[in-house]
Amino acid sequence: MANYKRIFLDGYSYYITMVTHKRNPILVDNIEALRESFHESKRYYHYSIDAIVVLPDHLHMIITPKKAKDYPKIVRAIKYNFSIKIIHNEEQSTARHKKGMNPVWQKRYYEHTIRDEKDYLRCLEYIQNNPMNHGLVDDSKDWEYMFAF
């Protein structure tokens, strides 16, 4: 595996994609648990969500953390809290892992440091078009699990 180095630049925004394990379509059906997971992460980390789209098996978002080095922790907190909410409690989560049961999320996530306004607009357009690209709606305005400035 290649040595991947993340870029941490304070004051920059980050485009992030998180995908469920084996693309299990659980996110929309558990949207309240996902919202609570974001809310919980904001108790510990300071960041703004500039845009987000949640699809059944993955989400894309643009976030701007107060401290750049926090964005991996933000992703970890969201994943962890959502997993606990889906599984119901931490002991059951540990037991599932020990028994070789499937995790809730893919281990890794995609991130991209947004370098300038053109890059930001490209990422924003991708987020806005994603529900159409996946055939979920004919018009992105009809997808209720999206927020963008």
Annotation keywords:
149 residues, 4 helices, five-stranded antiparallel sheet, Alpha-Beta Plaits, 21% strand, alpha+beta
If you compute it from the alpha carbons, what radius of gyration comes out, rounded to the nearest whole angstrom?
Answer: 16 Å
Instruction: Determine the N-to-C terminus distance.
Output: 37 Å
Shape: globular
| Tally of contiguous helical segments | 4
Tally of separate domains: 1
Instruction: Summarize the main sheet.
Output: 5 strands, antiparallel
Q: What is the strand arrangement across the widest sheet?
A: 4-1-3-2-5
Q: What percent of residues adopt helix (DSSP H or I)?
A: 25-40%
CATH homologous superfamily annotation: Transposase IS200-like
What would you note in describing this structure?
The chain is α+β, with helices and mostly antiparallel strands. It has one domain (13-148): 2-Layer Sandwich (Alpha-Beta Plaits). It has 4 helices and 5 strands. The chain has helices at residues 31-44, 71-87, 90-98, 117-133; strands at residues 13-19, 47-54, 58-65, 110-114, 146-148. The protein has a 5-stranded antiparallel sheet with strand order 4-1-3-2-5, covered by helices on one side. Helix 1 packs across helix 2 (71-87). The chain is globular, with a radius of gyration of 16 Å.
